[in-house]
Design goal:
The chain has 313 residues and is of the alpha/beta class. The protein is 51% helix and 15% strand. The mean pLDDT is 90. The structure holds uridine-5'-diphosphate and magnesium ion (MG).
């Protein structure tokens, strides 16, 4: 059994060596074979020098050095593409996610063959109430409007079996939102709570603005619902035009006078509505072309029982 750790690093000079040391300490005598796949995501500090030094003195360390900062999503992808373990874990370099939790995850996967992935979620979040509220709202919305399931509080911190990693790396889309991709490929994921530690050193690379952009990525990547909104708005406007016309006509007949404003307002609502409907039609075509452009597989087979009663995976 071999374990691979994918570690995205961006400006982590203050902590990456401690992470390496600490993980080795925790894994000693507990994991027989493991590798580190560090990805230096265009760090502007000494992270790469430190990784090179670590690489020099060890025989289980790979270092992928990006030409610039491509973001954590790209770093995770590069790491996953270069793992060889039977199990692969994505873990941050800042020791906020303790290596002890990886052992806990490993224990579950090794003892329960029905589970393919263990994902850790933060039980109590160490962040402001407003950010928590926004994040929860985002996950609720995503679960309603997209076909994939998002578990509130779940992070990228997870351990997967080889077959799941193989499917994730087959998804080559440029705009990646891994929490969605992990969910998209399916397989049986078990969620366990974990306590997020304080950053051992260095600082978080996330800001509210970055989180917002990330959330938009999630919505746009997993649902084409916004493209279809125009259709509903159009139907609403056309319906409003008719309701308004009927009410105005009845009121006109009762009072005995009909103003020309009625015709103008009805026409405005009607034309606006028709335009929206056709925008929605364009959206429907665009949505299909967009999804096709992602080239996601139509299905993913977990195992197949053939008529010879052989199990092939
Ligand atoms: N990270 C990265 N590229 C980036 C930003 C972050 O590889 O552009 C890495 C970072 O070095 C860390 C992990 O992603 O290992 C999580 O980042 P961070 O700790 O800043 O996020 P937070 O824990 O605050 O959510
Ligand atoms: Mg962190």
């Amino acid at each position: 059994m071999k374990l691979s750790l994918v570690v995205p690093c961006y400006n982590e000079e203050d902590v990456v060596y401690d992470f390496y040391k600490e993980t080795n300490k925790v894994f000693a005598d507990k994991v027989d074979s493991y590798e580190f796949v560090f990805v230096n995501d265009g760090s502007k500090d000494k992270t790469y020098e430190i990784l090179k030094a670590i690489h020099k003195v060890s025989d289980n360390v790979k270092v992928i050095n990006f030409s610039r900062n491509f973001g954590k999503e790209a770093a995770m992808y590069a790491g996953l593409c270069n793992t060889t373990g039977d199990y692969t874990c994505v873990i941050d370099a800042d020791l906020q996610q303790r290596p002890e939790v990886v052992l806990e995850m490993l224990h579950i996967l090794e003892n329960d063959s029905s589970v393919d992935c263990i994902a850790a979620y933060q039980e109590s979040r160490k962040e402001s109430k407003v950010v928590s509220l926004l994040k929860n709202g985002f996950y609720k919305l995503m679960n309603v409007i997209s076909e994939v399931e998002f578990y509130p509080g779940a992070s990228d911190f997870r351990l997967m079996r080889r077959k799941m990693v193989d499917e994730v790396v087959k998804l080559t889309e440029y705009h990646r939102f891994s929490k969605g991709l992990f969910s998209f490929v399916g397989f049986n994921t078990k969620y366990i709570p974990y306590e997020v530690q304080q950053r051992a050193a260095g600082e978080s690379k996330w800001s509210v603005a970055k989180l917002f952009i990330y959330a938009v990525e999630g919505i746009v990547g997993y649902t084409t619902a916004p493209l279809k909104l125009a259709t509903f708005a159009g139907i609403g406007f056309v319906a409003a035009a008719f309701i308004y016309l009927v009410i105005a006509l009845i009121a006109g007949i009762i009072s005995g006078s009909l103003s020309s404003a009625v015709a103008i307002i009805t026409l405005l609502l009607l034309i606006g509505g028709i335009q929206f409907i056709f925008t929605g039609v364009i959206g429907e075509y665009l949505a299909r072309a967009y999804m096709q452009g992602k080239n996601r597989p139509v299905f993913i087979v977990k195992e197949m029982l053939t008529y010879e009663d052989e199990e092939s995976e």
